[in-house]
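Suppose you are handed a protein chain with no further information: no name, no annotation, nothing but its sequence. What can you learn? This example shows the usual starting point.
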Amino acid sequence: MRNRKGRSPELKVGLKYCGGCRAGYHRVAAVERIRERLGDKIEFVSSDCVDCDFVLVVTGCATACVDTASFKGRPIRYIKSEDDVERFITEATGN
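A reasonable first move is to predict its three-dimensional structure. Written in C-alpha coordinates, the prediction is:
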Protein backbone atom coordinates (compact mmCIF):
# COMPACT_ATOMS: atom_id res chain seq x y z
CA MET A 1 0.00 0.00 0.00
CA ARG A 2 1.21 3.52 -0.72
CA ASN A 3 2.45 5.97 1.87
CA ARG A 4 -0.10 8.78 1.93
CA LYS A 5 2.22 11.55 3.21
CA GLY A 6 0.07 14.38 4.50
CA ARG A 7 -3.17 12.92 3.14
CA SER A 8 -6.05 11.40 5.03
CA PRO A 9 -5.36 7.87 6.31
CA GLU A 10 -7.83 6.24 3.97
CA LEU A 11 -6.95 4.65 0.68
CA LYS A 12 -8.86 6.00 -2.27
CA VAL A 13 -9.47 2.96 -4.45
CA GLY A 14 -11.08 2.87 -7.89
CA LEU A 15 -13.35 -0.17 -8.06
CA LYS A 16 -13.96 -2.22 -11.22
CA TYR A 17 -15.86 -5.50 -11.42
CA CYS A 18 -15.60 -8.04 -14.23
CA GLY A 19 -18.74 -9.16 -16.04
CA GLY A 20 -19.14 -12.18 -13.76
CA CYS A 21 -19.50 -14.77 -16.51
CA ARG A 22 -17.62 -17.45 -14.51
CA ALA A 23 -17.68 -16.08 -10.99
CA GLY A 24 -16.47 -18.66 -8.48
CA TYR A 25 -17.37 -16.51 -5.46
CA HIS A 26 -19.69 -13.62 -4.62
CA ARG A 27 -17.66 -10.60 -5.76
CA VAL A 28 -19.93 -7.89 -4.33
CA ALA A 29 -20.02 -9.60 -0.93
CA ALA A 30 -16.23 -9.84 -1.01
CA VAL A 31 -15.90 -6.09 -1.56
CA GLU A 32 -18.42 -5.46 1.22
CA ARG A 33 -16.27 -7.59 3.52
CA ILE A 34 -13.23 -5.49 2.61
CA ARG A 35 -15.22 -2.31 3.28
CA GLU A 36 -16.45 -3.59 6.66
CA ARG A 37 -13.07 -4.86 7.85
CA LEU A 38 -11.06 -1.82 6.73
CA GLY A 39 -13.58 0.77 7.87
CA ASP A 40 -12.22 4.29 7.49
CA LYS A 41 -8.95 3.05 5.99
CA ILE A 42 -10.52 2.71 2.54
CA GLU A 43 -12.83 4.65 0.28
CA PHE A 44 -14.12 3.01 -2.89
CA VAL A 45 -14.67 5.35 -5.82
CA SER A 46 -15.38 4.91 -9.51
CA SER A 47 -12.61 3.26 -11.51
CA ASP A 48 -12.69 6.42 -13.69
CA CYS A 49 -11.27 8.44 -10.78
CA VAL A 50 -7.84 9.68 -11.86
CA ASP A 51 -6.54 10.60 -8.40
CA CYS A 52 -7.18 7.25 -6.72
CA ASP A 53 -4.25 5.37 -5.17
CA PHE A 54 -4.91 2.37 -7.40
CA VAL A 55 -7.67 0.54 -9.23
CA LEU A 56 -8.95 -2.66 -7.62
CA VAL A 57 -10.18 -5.03 -10.31
CA VAL A 58 -12.47 -7.65 -8.80
CA THR A 59 -12.75 -10.66 -11.08
CA GLY A 60 -14.77 -13.79 -10.54
CA CYS A 61 -12.06 -16.15 -11.76
CA ALA A 62 -8.32 -16.37 -12.41
CA THR A 63 -8.72 -15.51 -16.11
CA ALA A 64 -9.15 -11.82 -15.20
CA CYS A 65 -10.23 -10.83 -18.70
CA VAL A 66 -11.31 -7.30 -17.72
CA ASP A 67 -10.15 -4.64 -20.18
CA THR A 68 -7.79 -2.42 -18.16
CA ALA A 69 -6.63 -0.20 -21.05
CA SER A 70 -8.44 2.82 -19.59
CA PHE A 71 -6.38 2.51 -16.39
CA LYS A 72 -3.08 3.04 -18.22
CA GLY A 73 -0.52 4.70 -15.99
CA ARG A 74 -2.39 3.88 -12.77
CA PRO A 75 -1.49 1.01 -10.45
CA ILE A 76 -3.85 -1.96 -10.66
CA ARG A 77 -4.49 -4.60 -8.01
CA TYR A 78 -6.53 -7.75 -8.69
CA ILE A 79 -8.90 -9.74 -6.50
CA LYS A 80 -9.50 -13.08 -8.22
CA SER A 81 -10.57 -15.25 -5.27
CA GLU A 82 -11.57 -15.33 -1.61
CA ASP A 83 -7.89 -15.88 -0.75
CA ASP A 84 -7.01 -12.65 -2.53
CA VAL A 85 -9.62 -10.82 -0.44
CA GLU A 86 -7.98 -11.97 2.78
CA ARG A 87 -4.49 -11.11 1.48
CA PHE A 88 -5.66 -7.63 0.51
CA ILE A 89 -7.18 -7.02 3.96
CA THR A 90 -4.03 -8.31 5.68
CA GLU A 91 -1.79 -6.04 3.60
CA ALA A 92 -4.03 -3.02 4.17
CA THR A 93 -4.14 -3.50 7.93
CA GLY A 94 -0.49 -4.44 8.26
CA ASN A 95 -1.38 -7.61 10.19
